[in-house]
Amino acid sequence: MNSIFTISKKELLDNVRNKWIIILTIIFASLTLVVSYFGSIFTDGWQDLGITIQGMMSLVQLLIPIIALMLGYSAIIGEIEKGSMSSLLSLPVTRLEILLGKFIGLGSLLAITIIIGFGLAGIVIGFNVSDVDYLGYIIFIFATIMIGLVFLALALFLSTLFNKRSTAMGGAIFLWFFFNIILPIVFVGILAASSDIINIINNAPDWYHILNLFNPLQVYSFLVTLNVGAALSFDTISIAYPEYYSNILMTIILLSWIICFMILSYWRFNKRDI
Amino acid sequence: MISKTIKCPKCKNIIKIKGNPGEKKLLLCSKCNQKGKYIFPSSDNRDDIEKGSIAISVKNLIKNYNGTNAVNNISFKVRKGEIFGFLGPNGAGKTTTIKSILGLVNVDSGLIKINDFDVVDSGKNAKNFIGYLPERVAFYENLSAFQNLCFIAEMKKTSKDECKILIKEFGLSNAINKKVGAFSKGMVQRLGMARALIGNPPILILDEPSGGLDPRGVVLIRSKIREMKKMGSTILISSHILSEVQAICDRVCIINKGEIVAQDTVDGLRKTLNIKPKITIELEKLSENIIKSVNEVKGIEKIEIRDNNIDVICDSRIKARVIITIEKTGGKIINIHTKDPSLEEVFMKFTEGD
């Protein structure tokens, strides 16, 4: 346990020293404030937190996965290529501890930047509007951290899967495209090909709702909109959610993604020769 | 039934166990609850281990990469307190063997033990004893020298004060808070050696310890290695600088094409190969007569003439006969110098054909 903590502390310190933590915090805070102030075409000035979240969701879906993937893709392969992994593994530490230490360290970095960035922006917005839905905003921050951790676990898997840092980076960019663009298009394409388009806008079939649960970005979007209200996203079809869509289900699905890819990462890392 | 006393690697508590040869016992320290495993030695290596005299034991190690044998069924033992040279040409399997000892690669078969702990089953316990300097020394470049060493100290559960002392000992005090990314190759190498010594490990594994160092750095590292030996550490060195290995190693092991071709003291290897010393005889004046009469001495392997010098390669026992012959022919000897065959020559003989 101590080794995991020491490795995660080192990861955090390493990223503090290379200014990542500051850059990300500024990005998150400024984006939220800009979206809140300039985001609505209907009214001028500050929007309340609910509307800000709706505006922020698409941005988060684009931004958080790529940040998490970029943070994690070189965590293992980068150290192997540089040569520091052999020194690390010569210490009394197991590969599982290294992997968990890296995940916790980079995950903490992501969580801290999200909490500080979005939190600061939330406080500023809170001072400028009435009827603030702080609980909804906290759930939005929680869901954002969860989706960040899902993509961090995916990035760690890529980092153990490939033998070159550059290939892992290519894999990370592909995954971002896959979950953000390819998968939603495929799902909607299947739906359009199989049903009457007029009907599906009002009432999508059950299998489509289930299919959507296989995209973690959709699950994130469901988790937020279940608590904050329907987002102004392009996916207007899924606004009428089935009854089994719940906070717990969405959280469990996101957790499952994290656990599955951490297990896969460990399996792959354990088989690897350094 | 064998009785065995084992020291807990964490709290140094003495644990007494009994078992049969080859039997695997689970250990639990009554003081600190540290868990571990111990395999009672089979009869062939029991004596060594019973005396507790073996620090590193490699038995029938095989490692393949894509169907090619990088290491093919090698076995060797490094005794406690000795400096063991691990030599071989490029691609011979040295680094693969070292990586196997450290558990960095998954071996295909074989048994590796460090202070009686199986590297595969009890890797964490085994690595408690090790300090490692890799061939390619790398650090976290955004962190300072001190932060890098503190990270290792924390992992090894030792005091951070030791890091400052080691940084000073290796002449890096001025760069203690400097990012390692800005270090020169020599500075990185010295910091690498400092890192290997954190926690005063009883076993040091050094892969090319002099790589990238200036002569001052080489002297510093060599004196540190000797100091560690005096303190009772076991040191395994892999190096291409054979003069260095010859100067400091008690025993050497030569590996070639994944197989061990020789394993002994340098003197022992010379005897095995029957490599004869080179006797250089400096004369006041060298004449054709002297050369002719020396050539007639039986048992001489080779004669070389340089100015007024005769280099004779022959058994030490022939030396007196050569001197008498020269003097009888009227030669006046100024100086005689005998040079034993170097480790380079021994190495070249054992790895001939590469």
Explain what you see:
The complex is a heterodimer of chains A (274) and B (354). Chain A has 274 residues and is mostly helical. Chain A has one domain (2-271). In chain A, 78% of the residues lie in helices and 0% in strands. In chain A, helix 2 (20-38) runs antiparallel to helix 3, helix 3 packs parallel to helix 7 and helix 7 (134-161) runs antiparallel to helix 11. Chain A is globular and about 60 Å long. Chain B has 354 residues and is an alpha+beta fold. Among the domains of chain B are: 1-40, no CATH class; 276-345, Alpha-Beta Plaits (2-Layer Sandwich), CATH 3.30.70.100. Chain B is built from 12 helices and 18 strands. In chain B, the strands form 5 sheets. In chain B, strands 10-11-12-7-13-14 form a 6-stranded mixed beta sheet, sandwiched between helices. A 4-stranded antiparallel beta sheet of chain B has the order 6-5-8-9. Chain B is globular, with a radius of gyration of 25 Å. The model of chain B is unreliable at 43-51 (pLDDT under 50). The A-B interface holds A 2-3, 6-7, 10, 13-14, 17-18, 82-84, 86-87, 89-94, 271, 273-274 and B 65, 99, 102-106, 123-125, 127-128, 130, 132, 134, 136-140, 142-143, 147, 151-152, 154-157, 179, 192, 195, 205.
Give the helix/strand class of chain B: alpha+beta
What CATH first level of the domain at 276-345 in chain B would be assigned? Alpha Beta
Based on secondary structure, the structural category of chain A is mainly alpha
Return the string of H and E elements of chain B.
Answer: EEEEHEEEHEEHEHHHEHEHEEHEHEEHEH
Number of strands of chain B: 18
Number of structural domains of chain A: 1
Count of extended strands of chain A: 0
Return residue spans of chain B where pLDDT drops below 50 for at least 5 consecutive residues.
43-51
Largest sheet of chain A: none
User: Biggest protein-protein interface?
Assistant: A-B, 23 and 33 residues
Strand order of the largest sheet of chain B: 10-11-12-7-13-14
Largest beta-sheet details of chain B: 6 strands, mixed
- What is the 3D form of chain A? globular
Element order, helices and strands of chain A?
Answer: HHHHHHHHHHHH
User: In CATH terms, what is the architecture of the domain at 276-345 in chain B?
Assistant: 2-Layer Sandwich
Task: Assign the CATH topology of the domain at 276-345 in chain B.
Answer: Alpha-Beta Plaits
Q: What helical percentage do the residues of chain B reach?
A: 25-40%
